[in-house]
Write a structure and sequence with these properties.
Blueprint: H1 2-9, H2 16-38, E1 41-42, E2 46-47, E3 56-62, E4 65-71, E5 79-83, E6 101-108, E7 112-119, E8 132-138, E9 141-148, E10 153-156, E11 162-166, E12 175-178, E13 187-191, E14 196-200, E15 206-211, E16 217-220, E17 227-232, E18 237-242, E19 248-253, E20 258-262
Parallel strand pairs: 2-6, 3-7, 3-9, 4-8, 4-10, 9-11, 10-12, 11-13, 12-14, 13-19, 14-20, 15-19, 16-20
Antiparallel strand pairs: 1-5, 5-8, 6-7, 15-18, 17-18
Length: 281
Amino acid sequence: MPMLASSLVSRPAGSRGGRLVRIAFAIGAAAMLTGCANRMFQVEMSGEAPPEGTPISVVVRGEHANVLLTTDHRVEAPTLKARADGARRGAVHMPADLGYVRADLTHDGESGYTLEIEIDRAPQRDLAAGPSTVTLRTPAIGDVRVRNHGGYVHVSGASGAIDIQNGVGGEGGNVRVRTDAPIDRDVRMETTDGQVTLSIPQDAKGTLEVSAPRGKPTIDARTVALEAFRPMPAERVWLAVLNGGENRIYLRTGRGNARINIVTEPMRTSFFQPFIETAPD
């Protein structure tokens, strides 16, 4: 192998072999840079870890961030990771660079465990840089409250009340939630600009309202009978009651489409093809 490498390098720069070497080097360098840019770095949390499998409530305040909150039964404890796309020198390189993400886990005897996540705009950013990405994987998620702007919010597997507002203090982004829990708590999902999608099981309950004043509202309930179903095309609002529920399930987007999917396997609804039951992301 050393002889082969030496013979390749010694070819004239204008030769076909020299061009191939330069192309191969460029491809390798690009792959290395892409790998660095896509790498996620673990964020340390302060506070007391909950017993294994204990549901936690999650509160997020984000700025210019993509937020992914996922129930994952394969992990034993909450795991938080982040990356900053478009930093001037590539991606985040050291754990110390993750100071723009802070996480504190607290325990209240009555309300249980709560994880509070603060996401500031990542430092040393190019002006055209995209949002940072912050992901949480935890054995179980209870209530969720998110205030964010400048990126999307995806929540998978929450079993409690859901309150998401995207576009607070800046641009909005897509809001997508899927859960196989039989929802009977209030759900509020709003964005100023983007798609809003909720996928829930057939035994969920709620008074549904889907609003898309500059898009298309939809309630897809092919396998269940809705009560008091009332589409209002002029206002671009759809109303219905699911399984007699009195808890409010409210979706709204200022610009884009809003949709509730009532399906047999909501956790198999893709975030990127949210109207189709498929393999999980």
